[in-house]
Specification:
Oligomer: single chain
Shape: globular
Structural class: alpha/beta
Strand order of the largest sheet: 3-2-1-4-5-6-7
Radius of gyration: 18 Å
CATH superfamily: NAD(P)-binding Rossmann-like Domain
């Protein structure tokens, strides 16, 4: 895909991977819709990009607000070419200690919210047969790891939804779906992660602090977007090994399911 001139909506754009990706996309000539809960932080991101931007602050878990948010986003330039589902929250607690409200919060933010936003955007994304959804999942969406039962459940589910969406729309509607599976990236994800009683951890983890710089992660995502990659693992060392344990020939699987989806839609591919 040639990204120049595309309209990309990035959630969670105030910091971390979302902010870094907004900066990287701006360098490709992308016009940006920047969303998150903190208007001032979004304004700082917009200023740093130097790009044509719309600032659209809202909480992605406010499902009732989504139709109006999508209408505002679409009305800005008359289209939405790329949706980047990046907003979310992590977890740091053992299941035996964790209140069920934590599952509601993490799965609500990391799975239910991006599904709802994608569904509301879908008519716009398939309108010109050049749409794209970039979904920021995690290595934890392939491998179940300790202290993250809610997070793993959400990220596994997000990959499943996106894979099935790709199967239905890749050939029939020209929609490109890219799942991104980061490992440890040096952001505030651990600091903001929910503990057993739903309170943020309040400090980072050594593994996160030593993780991949978000700018490096964003650069890899942009390359994958331009290349038409269906799934991208951004990880190093053991984290990459864990992700690959659940992969053998994923691209062959994606191609087969895309053809099945096209057949169901009455389209030859």
């Amino acid at each position: 895909m040639n990204l120049e001139g595309k309209i990309a909506w990035v959630t969670g754009a105030s910091s971390g991977i979302g902010r870094a990706l907004a900066l990287a996309l701006a360098k490709e000539g992308v016009h940006l819709i920047l969303s998150g809960r903190r208007r001032e932080a979004l304004q700082e991101t917009a200023a740093a990009t130097g790009a044509v931007c719309m600032i659209l602050p809202f909480d992605t878990t406010d499902l009732a607000a989504l139709p109006d948010m999508v209408a505002q986003a679409h009305g800005w330039q008359g289209r939405i070419d790329i949706l980047v589902n990046n907003a979310g929250i992590s977890q740091r607690s053992l299941a035996v200690d964790t209140d069920t409200s934590v599952y509601d919060a993490v799965i609500g933010a990391d799975l239910i919210a991006p599904i709802h936003l994608t569904q509301h955007c879908l008519p716009h994304l398939v309108a010109n047969r050049e749409g794209m959804v970039v979904s920021i999942s995690s290595v934890a969406g392939r491998a179940g790891v300790p202290l993250r039962t809610a997070y793993c459940a959400a990220k596994h589910g997000l990959i499943g939804y996106m894979d099935a969406l790709r199967a239905e729309t890749e050939i029939a509607h020209g929609l490109h779906v890219l799942n991104v599976l980061p490992g440890s990236v040096a952001t505030d994800v651990a600091k903001n992660a929910l503990t057993a009683d739903g309170v943020p951890q309040g400090h980072s983890d050594p593994q996160i602090d030593a993780g991949i710089p978000p700018q490096e992660c964003a650069a890899e995502i942009v390359v994958a977007m331009k290349a038409g990659t269906r799934e991208l693992i951004v990880a190093r060392g053991m984290e990459m090994d864990l992700a690959k344990l659940r992969q053998s020939d994923g691209d062959a699987l994606f191609a087969i399911t895309a053809k099945l989806g096209a057949r169901l839609a009455g389209v030859e591919g």
